[in-house]
## 1
Amino acid sequence: MVTTELENGIRALELKAIQKCKRCKEIDALVIVRQESLCSECFDKYVRSKYIKRMESFRVRYAPNDTGVIVPTQTTLLIPLSFGVSSTALLNLISNQLKAQRQRSNGQTGYNCLVIHVDESCVDPSVPPQESISAVQERFSDIGTFRVVNIEDIYDFRNVAREVELDHGVDEEKGGSDTFDKKEVLMHLLSSLPSTTSRMDILSILRTRLIVEIAKKEGCAAVLWGDSTTRLAQKTLAETAKGRGFSIPWQTADGDSPFGIEFRYPVRDLLKNELVNYVSIPLPTSPKPLLPLCVAYSPDAKHTAANAASGRNITIDELMIQYFDGIETQYPSIVANVVSTAGKLKPLRRPAGINISCKICGLPGDGAGGDITLSALTLNAVTELNAESSMCYGCARAMHGAGAYDWPLEP
């Protein structure tokens, strides 16, 4: 009987899996990482080393207090939790780092965490329910505070609510953000958008900006995103395809963001399939696998190859996710090169005193979408009839053709 190519590939993996670890040379290999067979202990060290390299600046520090006594200082970091493999793995890595800091520094840590899960069930009933956070909180009770917020809570912030109140004719002294139905306003906004890609794009923007608003309100020093190498590559090509390529340095690089708070990507050097292995197998620092906590993760592709090829019922973001998920195992260097190339891009510098921000995504504008041609309509940046004039190109494309809507945020 002729052995199929797939069977040959499975057999090759099985043979590699029973080899000795390429690093310690003593223990049987358990996983294959970028063509290298590793045991669980060496794989654990590999993942932790990638993470620690990105978190060196959050070690325990000491500074004088008001009386001049040297005391440890501590900052607060916000971690968005999606219940996917990346954000769950990040929590475990953070927990291990904090334990190590306590052991070395007499119980002191360099930071504490505020873990936020954004509940989007009003938009998509299939997303993980709020109750899912209980198991995660129990597992990582030592890292900080856990909180669930609703996506429609974006309307609770003062600069947000005031704009909607004005649009609805609500008197500031007689009413507030509670005088309108937040869910209703949000659903009206999303339903006014012209395509599934636009809705997914705008929902992602709202999620990011809600997390930023919470981080600033709580005095957090930075937001730690759980984006892997694969996710950053997906974002790079997706944002470029959507006409928001100018924003790539802001959306993929460690450091200050245009929102006035730092963005960090501690697992940016790890592929998604490596993080899937990390949460799936017992490890020295995580004897009990984390996969049961990853309730938002599914190994099955959301769309078929035929849908991806034809573009039917699939958004740009989903297409990029499917593409990179398909090549990362066999061609990890391609995924890493996309992120490396993106890292060489520099943010657009504007003359001093000029600060143009897109009113939708809030990022420094690319010259505004008002000077571009959308479909057969040329948008003029100086005409008051076109709301797209204050948007970047990508957001102008996403919002073009939308009906009347209330945008909840200001640049």
Note: The two ends are 65 Å apart (CA to CA).
## 2
Amino acid sequence: MKRSIVCLIAFASLSIMGCGEDFLDPVRNTNVITSEDFAEFSEQNPELIEGTLDGIASFMIQDQGILAGQHYDLGQKGVDIWLDMLTGDLSLATSSYGWYNGTANLVATVDFTATENRIIWDYYYKVVNLSNSVIASAGGNDANPEGAEVRRILGQAKASRAYAYFYLTQIFQREYDPAQPILPYYDGDVANAAKVPASEIYALIVSDLTDAIDLLDGYTRELKNQIDKPIAQGLLAYTYAAMGNYADAKIQADAVINSGYPLTTAGQLAFPGAGSGFNDVNTASWMWGFDLTEDLGHQLIDWWGQMDYFTYSYAWAGDSKSIDNGLYAQIPANDIRKTQFGTANAPLMPINKFFDPGRAAGGQYIITTDLIFMRVEEFYLLSAEAAAKTGNEGAAKATMIELLSNRLGSSEANAYISPLSGSALTNAIYLQTRIELWGEGKAYFALKRNQKSVTRGSNHVFRAGETFLANSDEMSFQIPQNEIDNNPSISEQN
């Protein structure tokens, strides 16, 4: 199938370019399309591969993109909900429809036949596949094109492939072990259907993102769903941190901080304030997100439908998602972020963090509130964690005080952070990561790289009060049955 797509691109390129002298050369075998041909075609006609690249961004927000009829198949944001549930910080507080029972009850993660495993696996490998097609069409893995537009396309495709593989490593390996075989490896040149050691997957991720940072240097995007250099740097920071390379993680996190994105303002942190910093892609602190418009027709089956009390869908109708009440109790009363969560008819639901501006219960039908994939605060937290773990506690404290000043107040932030050192400091950074990034799908990375335990509060429908280690079976997903059935190089046992 991939060969057919590649040949179609080449044929279309030849049709548009016409019969130049190069293609009339009798010495040249014109039946063989080389990587040099692809590079030449894409340099002259980058729009031929633009559609596939745009398709990756659209696929990230596509509902039921893997399995029809599955109302939790929501692209990247659907995965975010599952990961937040595994951390225990996101509670399935009521369950009338049952979509998240398997994850909330921690049975989907220990059953390779569960649908959740297939959706996650197929979603990310489809992104890998699409990225490989774009990379091949832009000249291949080793290409170094001269044209700015093709450099941008190749950089974005490599970053997209790295994004997919990074999530796969986090979701399907219990803890970082470079020697452990974990995933099949496909880069467009090499196809190894057997699981290869984690070191090989991580090497590809690092290489892709390093290349993407270089290729995207100087590129200014038009839309926030397009990957640019700071996003690639952010993904590389996460990758290094997952590998335990905190020195390089801090370099990349600091590069993101210095790229010009401001912190979310105090007024944007929670309603009423100045509005929400979590429903509009134009929020200045957002690095990566998707602008949902009426024309896209997102309705019932959407991340907002699963999370927002003010959207006509599951969260309002009986599948409420709340902050774990044990985590909520650790947020001080003077912290603005405590007001992100409701009481009364929406107990501990994020009604003042994620909300349709109309604020009518079940009111938003056609969804136009936007989807967030990455914001700059993630890298303040990661920079601080990396600094603390490499012995630079002064830098860690300074970064945390800067972040927390408009959440707690400057003097309060200073009084909280300044006396801390050692494990007390790293524990505080981990706690603040959970509070700050609640509902955004990123606390799971911190759980995994820090190998923390999860103790659920009392407001979970399932397994309230139980404790789980980060490397336990329940905290990672399984290679799905359809992969095992169709891939003879992988068995359930290996």
Note: Residues 55 and 85 are 28 Å apart (CA to CA).
## 3
Amino acid sequence: MHDERIRRSVAGTNLGNNRDSTRQHNLSTVLGLVHSMDGVSRAQLTRATGLNRSTIAALVGELAQLGLVLESDLDQAQQHGRPSIMIEPSPGALALSVNPDIDVVSVALVSLGGHIVNPVRFHTVRPPSVAEVVNIVTAIYTGMRTSLPARHRIMGVGLAVPGLVDPVDGTVIEAPHLGWRDQPLAALLSDALKLPVIAANDAVVGARAQATFGAGRDVSDLVYLYGGASGIGGGVVSGGRLIRGATGFAGQLGHTHVRSGGAQCTCGSTGCLEAEVTREELIAAIGLPAGETENLEEAVLEKLQDESASQEVGAIIERQIQLLAIGLKSIVNLLNPSLIVLGGFLRILVRASPGTLSEALRTPGRRGPWENVAIELAPLGEDPILVGAAELAFEPLIRDPAGFLRPQDDDAGAPSQPM
């Protein structure tokens, strides 16, 4: 299975070769495999890339000198021949992930291999302004940076925003729940942190994390749907590639129409999925205090055990499941995925009424694209979004490891130096 994952990771790319002119590509290929597989043996790298063992050894040696990989114990699982040395991503290569929302600003360091090091959730009493986000992140980053071990390096910042983001310069075109419009958050963060900042929609980067490290890592066609405080967003992987669209705005699945004459949506339409299926309705139904929203899932499940309240809460969940099913039917008919991953508060609907959503997606006696669709739940919390945000920062590093880390004089956009 591990070898099959490696083959899929390099499918559709030009495999490395032994010519000096392709050194950059070979370094990128090897680092990308080590990162996405969170560790791989030299023998597996040799088989996957077509490079000979001495070339792989030289590439791994260069990546180790750059502080990007570590050579560890032998691969005892190898069944034939001598055990092969394992190559693992270095914990010292880090990205700073930032995810602002209407009631919390989440910040974390994430290492190569998709490991979250020390997440911080800064709660706010109201939707933060762009300036407040910059101040919050700067303060958190300063504390993180001063406590980093020696030889750790922050490569850049990945910014996951609950809204539309310009893929060229990272400007937040619109984040309606935050009240932001045409805000240069990426540029402001870059100036404050002296690091390169790359921004994208939060649900889209969550889909990327699921495809690389999560439930969708062995799936070519999947949909990731995330429900948060700012509504419902999504990301689509088709044929093994994240769909971005002509201008980078693909994946606005929360604006799928699910009810005629429904609630007003921030997009200007009515009856959109994110206007009809909301976290706020669940919070109000169980009377959860504002400071305890992180416990929403368990609080809802506990409320359902209370006979005096279960009928009302159950009716709300049933309504939301049926509307979610309408939206998912449209998505499945359009995209024909084999897997749907639900994250955020959407997990609650599946856990509260097991089997109901899957049943609602199917039409008895009829065959269609929905009959073989699996539904899985993303991990509880917002880890996929933070991991996906880090992928934004790691992308230029993996594309050209040596070039990205080449010393640059007085360049505010260069990664922070080892401490």
Note: The chain has a mean pLDDT of 86.
## 4
Amino acid sequence: MKALRPPMGWNSWDSYMTTIAEEDVLANARFMSDNLKQFGWDTIVVDASWFDPQAKSEAYNDAAQGATFCLDKYGRLLPDPVRFPSAADGSGFTHIAEKVHELGLKFGFHVMRGIPRQAVRENCPVEGTQWTARDVADMDLEHACHWNNDNYGLNQAHPGAQAWYNAQLDLYASWGIDFLKVDDMQAPFYPAEIEAYSQAIRIAERKYHREISLSLSPGTQVATTNIDFLRRNAQMWRISDDLWDRWRDVYNQFSRMARWAPLQTPGHWADADMLPLGHLTVNDKQGGHMSNLMPAEQRTLLTLWAMSHSPLMMGGDLPTSPAETIDLLKNPWLLEVEANSMHNREVLREIYDQENKFNKWDGASVPEGEFIVWAADATGAAPSSCSCEKGEKCSCGSGEACSCGENSALTTERGSYYAACFWTGPTQCQQRVDIAAIVGLEDYQLGFDLTKWKVTDLWSGTSGEAKLDGRLLSVTMPAHGCVWLRFDPID
């Protein structure tokens, strides 16, 4: 099953934007293999404009104004052979994928929805059909991407549109990819395009006998009512616009992930976007910068992403990021919570202000911040053996059509829990919370002695302090910080 747990990897956008080169990809892959693979990090993704010979870090080149890209005779994008020398023989990303696989990692890259405008200008044939790019393109600019002019859309009413995607995926699957990030799919939401891409991936998977995970972007105003459709067609989908190293961007994900966390299931993950940590924008005129997020904010970001089962895709350049950043990524609890927790949920959110000593918010004063508590159950059993798609015969051997399609049958060993207490205000804050909010009333009423818990600080005391006194958990959190804990009952 694809994406059994939320993917953990590296994406080149935050560090290299449009100027990523082969040597950069392999340097990050080697670093990940040597330092992070054992902690669950296993995917390398090349983001936008890998096909553009004139790529510049600060902006996209405009295909509507005549910018030309590297295409094959069928109008399919090829890597720029100057930045990616191993592609000069026409084999695309084959050699890079092989090297990444040799390191025990997965490889993927970014594409835009639709068909290149250049392919339409040159009227390239659609491989294996009697049609051309002009036949299948949707040249209505209302249906084109509004922030990137690389492509036109595809006329999904034309049979050649699916043939175009099939041919594109056939080429990319032949290179040995494991992951495809497809952009301009959700803002606005293009269900026909998403289904067409999903179908093309399934065809390529059967031919090349390898799995390809589909990630959809961006995520502006993606509604939870789309959940069933998204689960049928993708492994990851963004739930926000681009996230950068600004506290307001991190803060805005709290409410989004509170909506999406109850809907997370193995194989299908709402994505809070890349982690803007470490060395960012390395190819800008200033040589890049280190993340503007403070240490407490970085831990808050990672904790929220893990507790909400968001994929973790590192954005900063791994080899040149500070040791402190890499140490955060090495926290083994990130993988443990991503892979072995369930019922992840926000359980409490209250507004407080400093004037009233964080006891309440009276509605008149300016609120200082929010005290937010998340909880999750620690799981003990492996995921269900079900690996089928909804409607297919279930792999359990019953011979009946699968009714779940989510492969989400996890069980829990009663008694162990995760908790994350967040404070969004700009000054240190102390709060108390009834532990029943974390362990649930059922365990409380069944006679658990709430004073007998082993409490493990998952950030090793670097993010704040916690003390359990009877049924009350007292926490001290730094500005924009958190306390991340595991509770295990003591016999």
Note: The radius of gyration is 24 Å.
